[in-house]
C-alpha cells in the first residue's frame, strides 16, 4: 500500500517560493520585535557606560545598596522555601489524600491569585497596624504568591504514574521514604518553575512592601525616581536588580538539571489511589482552612469592614466609572498590542524552529523576567532624553505594557498555533491565496481561542499593574490600581475599598480559568 506521505501531492515551486518568502518576512518581524524587547536591558547597560566607571562604582558600592541587597536576598531566601513547603503540603492533601472537600480546598488554594499583592498588604496592615519589617514581608508574600507554586505542583502530582511508587513500596520503603525518593524528585521541574515565578515577583513587587515599610530595590528605585528624578542613581539600582533577576534565572536552570522522569511508552497508567488520613483528618483540615482564612478571609473581611464603615459615600460612581473605563481601555488596548507583537515569534517557534528561533524566543522571555519598574524607568529616560514628545503619552504606556507582558501572550499563542495543522496553510496557498491571506484564513482563525486566552492573561496583568502605570501614564490617567493607591496612601482605607473589591471581581474569572486549565492539563 502506498504510504500517506507518497500520496501527498508535491507543492509547485511557486508555492514553495511564496512560503519561503512569507517565512522570511515573519522571521524579520520576530527579530525586530525581539530586539525591541531587549531595549530596557540594553538601556541599563548603555547608561552604565555613559555614567562612567568611577560614578558607577560610587553609586553601586555604597551602604544603602548593601542594605537593599541584604533585605532583598533575605526576603527571597526566607519566603521561597516556606512557599515551597506550604504548596507541596497543600497539593498532596488536595490531590493525593481523601481530605473532605478536597476540590473546594484546591480552588481556595488558587483563589488568592485574584487578589493583587498590594491589596493583600492593604488588608493586613489594616487588620494589624503594627505589621512591619522583614517577617511581615515574608508573611504577606507567602500568602500572596504561594499559588504560583501550588498550581504547577498540583498539576504535576495529578500526572505522576503511581507504578513507580508501588515499585518503591514493594521494595520495602515506607510512605515517607517513597515520597522523598520517588515523588519529590518528579516535582523538581514544577518546584523550580514555580519558585522562579515567586522569586521574580518578590524582586518586582512595590506596593506590598511600601505598605509594611520594608525597603527593597524596587521600592528604592520608585522612591528615587519620584523624589529627585535622579536618573543615574535609579538606573544603577535597576542594574543591580537586573543582575539579581538574571542570577535567579541561572540558578533555576542549574537546580532544574536534565533528569527525565517520564515513561518511555504510554503504558497502562491508572488513577492514583488517595491516601486515607484516618485520625489525622481533622489536623490536616486545619492547614488548608488556615491558609484560606489568612489569604482570603483577611482581605475580604477587611475590605467588607471598610466598605461598611464608609457607607454609600465611598462609592463615588463618577470617579469609579472613570477609573474602570480607563482601566478597561488600557487593559484591552495593551492586550491587543502584546498579542499582535507576539504573533510572529509564536509562528516561527512552531513553523520554523531552529537555533535562531530559540535565540529570539529567549530575548522575549528575558524582558518578561525584568521588573516592570526597570522597563518603565528605561522608557521614561529614553523619552525624556531622545523623544520628549512621547513622554507620558498613550503610545509610551501601551508600548511598555507590550514589552512587559509579551511572554504571557507568547505562551498562549504558541500553544494554540501548535494545534493548527500546517497543511491547512499549504492547501490555502495552493488554491491561489497569498501567504498572508492563507495564514489569516487558517492558522489565525484556529488559534483565536488561544490568542483570546493570552489576551485575557495580559489584560489581567495590566489591570493589577501599578508601578509602570504610575511612571508612564499620561497626566490625568487614573486606573483602578492608581485610585486605590492614591486613597490608601492618604490613609483613607474606606475610600480605597471599592477599588480593591472591583479589582478582585475582575480578576476572579481569569483565576478560575487558570484553575480549570491546570485540571485539563492532567486530563480532568
UniProtKB/TrEMBL annotation:
Indicate yes or no for the key word NADP: no
Q: For this UniProt entry, which segments traverse the membrane? A: 25-49, 69-93, 105-125, 131-151, 187-212, 232-251, 280-308, 328-350, 362-384, 390-411, 443-462, 496-516
What Gene3D superfamilies does UniProt report for this protein, alphabetically?
MetI-like
Q: What is its main location?
A: membrane
Per UniProt, the keywords (alphabetical) are:
Cell inner membrane, Cell membrane, Membrane, Transmembrane, Transmembrane helix, Transport
Task: Answer whether the UniProt record assigns the keyword Transport to this protein.
Answer: yes
Superkingdom assignment:
Bacteria
* Chain ranges of the ABC transmembrane type-1 domain: 69-255, 324-514
Quote the InterPro entries the UniProt record gives: MetI-like, MetI-like_sf
How does the entry describe its membrane topology?
A: Multi-pass membrane protein
Location comes to: Cell inner membrane; Cell membrane
Family the UniProt entry places it in? Belongs to the binding-protein-dependent transport system permease family.
Q: What is this protein called?
A: Iron ABC transporter permease
